[in-house]
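Example record

One chain of 224 residues, shown exactly as stored in the release files.
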Amino acid sequence: MSTFGSKFNFGDNNSSSEQSDSDASSDERQDEQIELKKNEQQINTAKKQYGMGDSDDELQDRVVISNKEKKVVEMDKILAQMTKHCAGRVKGDVADFELLMVDFNKLKDFLKLFKEIVCNGSEKLPTSVLRVLVLLQKEIECITGSVKKKMEKVNSLNSTKMKARFKEFLTDVENVGGVKELDSTNKKGKKATVEIVTYEQQLEAFKLNPKQEDEADTKKKAKK
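Predicted C-alpha cells for this chain:
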C-alpha cells in the first residue's frame, strides 16, 4: 500500500508542477500581449497627435525633430542667462564675471554634446549663439586697465580668466571638427586640408552682418 501510495503521490506532484509551468507560461504570454498593445496604442496616439500616417519613418523623423526642439529650448535658457549677466556694460557698470564664467562653461559643454543637433550637422554656430557671444566679447573688451583698478579683486581676476578662455574657445580648431586632410595633394606633395572656419571667424563675419538669420529661421518665416 505504501509503495502504491508513494507512486500515486509522485504522479500528483509532477502533474501539479506541469500545471504550474503551464500557468506561468500563459501569464508571460498575456504580459507580452499587454505590452505590445500598450506600445501600439502609444504609437497610434503619437500619429494622431502629429497628424501622421502609418509610416514608421515619419514617426522617427518627428521624434528627431522633437529632440532637436528640446535641445534648442535648453540652449536658449543658457543664452538667456548669459544675456542677463551681460547687462553690466549697458548699465554703465561691469559684469559679474563669476556668473558669466558659469554661463560660458555651460554653453561650451552644451555645444560639445549637442552641437550636431542644434546646428543641423554643420560647424556653423546658430545666430542666437553668435549674438550672445558678441555681447560677451563687448563685456570683456570694456575691461581696460583703468576699469580694472576700480573693480573688486575677485571680479578682476575672473575677468582675466574669462578673456583667456573666451579667446581659446574662439580660436580652437577642434571646436569646429579639427583640421581634416583631403585625398588630394599639392605641388609639394603635401596633403590638402579642408578650410577651417573658426568660431572667431564666424563671429567677425556675423558682426559685419548682424541681421543675418539661420536658414531654418528663414524657412519658418517663409511658411507664415
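Notes: The first strand starts at residue 181 and ends at 185.
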